[in-house]
Amino acid sequence: MAGASRDQALALLAAANNHGDLAVKLSSLRQAKDILLAVHPSFAAELFPYLVELQSSPETLVRKSLIEAIEEIGLKAMEHSSILVSVLLVFLRDGDSIIAKQSIVSGTNFFCSVLEELALQFHRHGKVERWLEELWVWMVKLKDAVLAIALGPGPFGVKILAMKFLETYVLHFTSDANDFEKSSIEGSGRAFNISWVVGGHPVLDPASLMSDANRIIGVLLTLLQSASSLSGCLTITVVNCLLVLAWHSLGDVLGSGILGIRLSWVWRVDGLWCLVSYNCAIKFGLLTSFSRCSIVGDGYILVIVVDRSGFHFFVLPKILYQPAD
């Protein structure tokens, strides 16, 4: 890193950490981030130890801005980003739900990018560099930490994002038959394909990854079976996660967990009677029937219907609602 840029970045990081004015702290962090993004990743990495010192800032906005900076800088300087990812794991346990939620969001983006880079290296060169293997170990730790959040006590907003992370995790490890070239050209937003690593790698073993994905689905199903002990929002989130997994043709991964299963519960939440009814069948990788989640109250219901064209939301008078058999 050029001497002038290094000195400027150090001064800005010091201001972000020590200045008494919050606006100055945030502005200094943004400017320091811009400098670190502009220089070569190896030069930027020299200042990462100073950047991560901001994790002890008492201001929520500074910590949130730090997470956003870590995501941007870390994805550009991925080879040197292990120290940055470790901060995300610390922030998952932050007492402020804003910080925990931002950590899950940024962690999700990091996870997807690292997984794609792993697969690309293995597909193109038949091997994965050591730094990337070490970074993947951090991603596994991240997944385990987010799973613990989903299963443990905590704010609803954080738990909902944790479940969405698990949904993303499972979606990546499917037995999709599409080859590498087709997946890359389509650019569907889910660039990774488990078929890229067929042939085996100690880090990216398809059988192990798909087994873990199946375990996560089992966790979601277990949560759904205990719906009476969950809040309405959390139960709806679990149902929607399972519907998304079914929608994306995960017949092989879902296995006996979803295929042909019919689940329904009734419970009382905040004075409203709520009904979750789940009845889907998967045939040739497509959702062939609909599923719905209904909240009944004040004579009206919210019905969420999933069919081949996507999700549909309806508010209907209760008298018109015909529950599933």
Automatic annotation (TrEMBL):
Which domain of life does the protein's organism represent?
A: Eukaryota
InterPro entries referenced in this protein's UniProt entry, alphabetically = ARM-like, ARM-type_fold, Symplekin/Pta1_N
> Which protein, by its recorded name, is this?
Symplekin/Pta1 N-terminal domain-containing protein
Task: Give all residue intervals belonging to the Symplekin/Pta1 N-terminal domain.
Answer: 97-246
Q: Which organism is it from?
A: Vitis vinifera
One matching Pfam family, short form? SYMPK_PTA1_N
Membrane spanning segments where? none
